[in-house]
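Why does residue order matter? Because the sequence determines the fold. Keep that principle in mind as you read this record.
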Amino acid sequence: MKINEIKEILNAEIITDFSNENTDIKYGFASDLMSDALALVKSESLLITGLNNSQVIRTAEMLDMSTVLFVRGKRPCQDAIKLALENRISILSTDYTMFKTCSLLAINGMEGIEADD
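Structure:
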C-alpha cells in the first residue's frame, strides 16, 4: 500500500514524506510498546502508535521502517520530527482511534503481522 493511499483511507496528515512511487508498505503493526515492535515488526511495515516521543522514531530506524502513523490526533514532538527528517522516515497522523485505523487498513488490504510469522 502506498502512503498516499493510507492518507486517503485514514484522512491522515502527512507530516514528513520520504516515500516515492516504489515505497510499498505491506504490513501494519499497532502498539504503544516499542519492545513489542522490536520483537515482531518486519521492515516493510507501518508502525501505528499513540505513543508520542522520539523513541518511536528510534525504533522505526532500528527496524529499517520507512513510515510511522500516529493515531488519536497525536502529533509527534519536534524532537521526533527532527529525528524522522534525519533518518528519512515518513510520519503521518490521523484523528482515528487505533482500532478504527487498523480496521480501515485491513479492510483495504493491508496485512497484519502475526506473532509466529
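The two ends are 20 Å apart (CA to CA).
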